[in-house]
Every structure is written in structure tokens, then in C-alpha cells.
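Appendix B. Raw example, untouched.
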Amino acid sequence: MKGLKGHRVGPYVLDEYVGAGKIGFVYRAHLDEIPEVEHAVKLVPNPRPGWDNELKKVARLSKVSNVVHFHRLETHQVTSGSNTAVVQYTVWDYVAPGRNLRDYLEFTQNCSVSFLFAVVTTILRVLHACEQLGAQRHGDLHTGNILIGEQDGTQLDSSGNPVDPIFVSDFGYGATGEQCAPKDDYQGLATIADAVIRRVDWDSAPASGRLFLTGCRDLLKKVSREQTASEKYTPLSILKTLQEMSVRSSRISPTSSRLTPEVLQTQQNDASVGQFQISEMLGDDWELWNKLFVARVPARSRILEKDITAVVTGPRGCGKTMLFRRLSERLILECGPVDGIPQTFLGLYVNANDISDAFASFSENPTSIQVARLISFLHLCVVSDVLSVHAIARDPRHDSGDPLVNLLQEWFGSKPTGNSLVTNEDPLSSYRTHLEQLKRKYVSGPQAVQFPGQVLFEQHSFLRDLIPALREKCSWVSDRMVFVFLDDYTTPRVSEPMQRVLNRVVFQRSSDFVFKVATEAATTFVAEDSSRKLLQDGDDYKLIDIGEESLFMSEKEREGFLGEVFSRRLSRDPRVGDSCRNLPSLLGRLGMSKTAFARLLRSESPKDQTQVQLQAQLRGAARRKALYCGHDVFTGLWSGDTRLMIQLMQDVVDAEISQTGASSVVQTVSGETQDRAFRNRGGQWLEQQRRNSPTDPQQFDKTARDYANSSAGFRLSGASFGSHLKAIVEAFKTAARAELFGPTYVMTENGHSREVPKMAFRIEITDEFRLSDMAAAIYRDLIRYGLFMRDARGKSIRGAMVPRLYLRRLLLPYCVLPLSKRDSVSMSCEWFSKLLLTPDQFSLDWIDQRFAKNADSRDQLLMPFADAGNDLQSGAVVEPEYDDISEDGDL
């Protein structure tokens, strides 16, 4: 198919062979009757299943610029010599001179930062158009599918000068649910950006360019690694972030990485309360780090204990990454010490995603070579951060040379780049470059990596030798304890076999260093090492759940932490007036106790309920009297998920501006506006969870098939895994509201008695916690995705610990539930399994049981699955950490 120049295909004459992809051969061609009309003709000898998906996608983008557009589909009999074949051919725009980005980079010595920005933002604009027009995704992004045209005078820059156009072509033929699955667009985009970044001359780039390069690279790494569908960023949000990053970086002085005082005020005017929700968006903008980081993180003192490894979990956006990065020595040097945290430790930062990227196909049963290479790579990552710190902290006046270089020579040789150092060349920079090149070689396989110190790096005990050596050669290390902050240590990105191998290093005991590990949830961390030793919480490590810690913070502590977070952010938003730049002044206060608010929720119910009326009320269908509003309610919705609270605050400010038509918020936002924003944000977040998939889809499918064979008629609610998780929340909402509208109980305090509604958003299991394989698989992801938060304190049932589960607080307004954590929805493990497996049926059965047992609304409600000691009983003893209404002033 490559030698058809001059052949006729339909009405076209093939002029020049351009190139080939996986399924077709592309020629520049012209219309026989009108030679001036040039197109690209793609010949496809053997169309694969799903070949028409590309045409369907591109057809939706027919009016979108920077897309190579489709014109025609035909078949033709092609004869070359003695061979004849019928081929399918498609006709497209021809982008002269027929070069793709891969070819462009091969013949370009250096690329500019502005070229990187143009390529990435053009692709993002096209991906945004795909999303808006129903094309879903490109599905096959790589450098061969990005075309760089030549100037023809039709495309101009902002100054009116002609520019080379950029086009996106060859949309993938894969589609979700079909034989060939589409490739991840963000992973493709990150790969394209990385290819361009390698052509940028870092040393000659201005400080502003280096700042953008670092931020762009880190942001695209972050979004490409996100596998949870409900947490993925939209192309538009990434585009806006890069545009903001470009504006910020352009305002720094040419020779410094700091913003000049003159432009700080300009940046202030561009800010909003919802900006910079992830640390990668901050890049190396140290001023922003200092402005936005809040040190008063839940359980900070426990995380920073020096005598035990900490495994830190918490919901997405709780600040684990920001905390680990800010406490690393590099950011201490760049931003200064953190207020309130003594500098008695030295932090090194490693992101476990770098490890998973290098070992994407790590075996379930790894060989000794694979194990050695994995351990070596972890140690290279640690040394990489050591060198980045040393480059800042070393004494440039050291006359006898850099003592660390001698150690680097032992590890990597005297000619790390293959050439001898030249006059005035910095050996540390050379070794840093070489180390990053070594790390990239791991992707090619274990045999591709060779360096003199390799055997040392492959030892579990390498860090035991490294830290004393650093104390000797680097004065900045001194005698401080070294914390290795290992971030994003989460399955399935860091697979279970990988974690078992790495755990031999991470959980070793030493007086010189200790690891601090961040993982998504308790269920995404493997508490076992490669020797099959089980790692015990409290002995080998300390599990710290930021979500759980936030649950048991006092209201004063919660308001203190979030108050500092939002006073910093509100003060940067020009739309918020000076009088409203803290939570109390912006949101006001609810003005009633939790008990009074629960009574108000109950008052929305008709006096004489039929079962149909009650079910409608439980769904929140009636007009509501209770408004979720006030800074005390706002802070009460926090489950450690600070990023979601930032999004919620952005919603509130946007809604108030839209509602009033004013240019700024100068008085307390109305209760109705807050209530609407609170309910909507919870509903939107829950709806996003429908996109989630099981952590291990293959294993889940097998478990589901086995369960379906033993339980005739079983199927997931809503026909998808994510919809099933949402249905579980909806079913719990039904049960919790049934308890709210059920009988009250009497509390007696200091001689005073009061009737209290049952206020529950907690599940309490009343017997042994034993789940089937199917229920356990659903339960693990219910926790992983944060729909429910696990209270590891639990309680003892017949000598075994039974967990308590809390509904994510953000969902309380959407579910129309009370704000107190005092009570619980008590159920047996059998009923809990029914909630997990058949949530729709659970809802119906729970209501039936309630009406069957509730003959008199003033009688004590005692469900058949409730424990005799449950807290419905008048005068029942409630554990102090759960009792948040005994002193709320409601008597």
C-alpha cells in the first residue's frame, strides 16, 4: 500500500505517500477534475471491528476548529502489479506539509515553553468540544496524531502575525463496551507534553518558563494518574488551570522564581476562593504555598511522631499530599518553616505514582530480579529528592568541593552522562540529570538499567547506610530524624504485589528514619510484606484516618481549622467584600441547637401519615421548612474532605453573586441560597459516584457471577457498579429518615427531661461482622470512594471489633438528615448485607418493619434487629465522644 503514487482511487489521484498508522495508509491526493483541491486519502485494506467509531466521533466535530475533518467514505478496487484488492478509503482535510508532532520534534533541536502551552491547550480545547458534543473522547492521543501545519496566513497570533496551525487527527476507533477499548486521553496528553518538555532547554529557559514547565508537568501527571471516574477533572477545568498558571508564571521576574511585589496585587485581583484545589496546581509558586497552606491539620501531632511508621488515610482532597509536600525539606527551604511545627525532623518526599509508572506490569509472583529492581527504584526516588534539597541547601563557598559528589561517583561513576565534565560544569547538576535518565530506563525493563552502585540500591537496608552517610557529607541533615513521606501509596495504582515488596523497606525500624505513608483508604493499603508477615496496626504502624479524626474534633477545633482555610481564601477573592472575609460574617449562624433543627425537620411531616405519605416525605418531596445554613452547619458538613468544602464555598459565592446581581458579596449570604448550594453540591457529588468502577473489575465480575449463580435474579441496582453504590446511600437515607420520623426518646439531665428525635447518620452493626465475598467487595469500595466513613474505634461484639460507619457529612443536606452524630441506625449484619446487596429491597423491607412494629407513635420503637442496649432506650448511656447534644442548650 506504500507504492501507489499516481494511482487513481475513486475521483482522487494519489500524489504522495505521507505515512501509515495501525489500520491505514495515508496519501496526499487531489481531485482528478479539480487538481487545486487537495485532500488526505486514507486507505484501509482490512477494517477492524469498530472502524466506524472514528467517523462517528469526527462527524460530531464538523464545526470545531483544529480538528482534521472528514469528507467522504467509499470503497475502491486497487491494483498494483499483479495484486488486486478492494479497500475502504476515507477522505480528510490535508494539512500541509504532512508532518506530525513526532516528526516535528525529531527535526527540532529546542522547543519553547510557549510551544508546549500551545500544543497542550489546543488538545484540551478539542477534548472539551468532544465532551460537549457527545464524542466522549479522542481515544488514541499520541505525537503521531497531532499535526503541525505550515503558515498559510489564515491563522494568526494575538498580534496578527501568521502562525503554524496545530490539528488533532486520527480519533481512536475503540469505544467503551466494545472489543477494542479506547485509550485514556489524559495519559496520552501527558505523554505528548512529556515529549515536548524533553525538547525544552531548561537552562536557557527564563524563570517564568521553568515555573510553568514544572507546574504543567506535575498537573498533567496528576490528572493522567487519576483512575477514579468521579474524581477526574474536565478538559475545561485543566485548560483554565493551565491558563491561570501561564498568567502567574509570566509575572515573575526573568531571573527569579518569585513574584515581584508589583504583580502580587494583580494576581490578587484574578483570584477566587475556589482556585488551587490540589497542590499540583500550586507548582513552584512559593508565595501561594505560604498563603494557602494551613498547618492545623487533623491528627498532625500523631502523624509526626518519630517512633513509628504512620499510614495516613482520608477522603480525596483531605490535604494529605499538601501536608507531605509542605513538610518536605525542599519546601521548608523554599517557603520557610511552618508555624507551630519545630524543625526537629527532615522530610524527603516520594510520590508512589512515579514507582507505579515505572513498573506498570509488575508480576503477581515477581522474580528476584523484579524485586531487586523495584527496591532499587524506590531508593533512587529517595536519592533524587536528597539531591534536589542539596542543590538548594549546600554551601556554594565550600573550597574543597562538594563532599556528596564523592558518594555520587561511587554510585553512578565518574562520567554519569558518558562524557567528562568540562570547565565550570556543575557535577551535582550532571548527576541529577543522569539519575532522572536512569529512572526513565526502568520503563524499558529490568535489563535496561545498569550503574555501579546498583547492588547497594537493591538492598532492603540501603537507607540504613544512606542516612548516616548524608549526616557526614551534608551539613543540612545534621542529627535530625529523617521522615520519608511516601505519597499516593494506593491500590490499584501501586499493586498489591508491589506493596508487599516495598513494605519490607517501608516498615523496617530505624533510629535514623521512619516512613510516613499516605493512602486513599484503609482498604487500599496492603498490611503484609513479601515474607507474608502481617503488619499490625499499633505495633508495626499507626493507622490515622483524617476523615475519622475530623469526625471527633470538637466544634471549636473544626471551626478553627476551616476558619483559617477560608479566611485565607476569601481574602484573596475580590468578589468578597472586606466585611465578609471569614465564615461567621459570610454565612452567619444557624441559630438553633441540633435537637431543635431535628424537630424542625420532623415538623415537615403531616400529622396523620399514611405509608404512601411517609415514603414521599422520606424522599424529601414536600416543601421544606428547615434550611441548612450558617457557618456552624458548613463546618459540620466537613468529613476531612477540604477540597469539596472549597468547591462548596465557590458554589455559595457564585450563587450569591448570581442571585443578587451585585459585583461582590458585602453581607451575610441568605439562608435560602446557602441551603440550595449545600443540597445541590451533595446531590452532584453523589451523582458523580455513578461513574465509579470496582477497584479490581475482573475480580469483582468473577465474584458477581459466582454470587448470581447462587442467588437467582441478583443484579446491580441501576445496572452499573457506581449506580449500585448510589442506591446504597439512597436506601440508608430512607432508613435514617424513618428513624427521624419515628418515636422520640426522653433524655433527663440535671432534673430536666426533654423529648429528643432520633438523629442518626451512623450505621451500627449489632452482632458479629461477617460478610460474604460479594458484600465484602461492595463494602470495600463503599469505603474507598468515601460514601461512608469508617469509624475504626468500633465496638466489641462477643470479643470481636465491629466497625461503625458514618454517611459522608456532605450528603446530610441532600438526604435531609439531622446534624448530630449521637444516634445510630442499628441493624444486624444480615440486614447490613441486604443493604449492600439489594438496597432497593432493603428500603421497602425497612419501612414495612417500621409500620409493623410502630403501633403507637409514643411507644418505644424496638426493631427486631435492634440490640436491647441500643441508644433508643430512655436514659441510655452514650459514649461521650458521640454525644454532641447533651450541652446544646435545648431543654
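End of appendix B.
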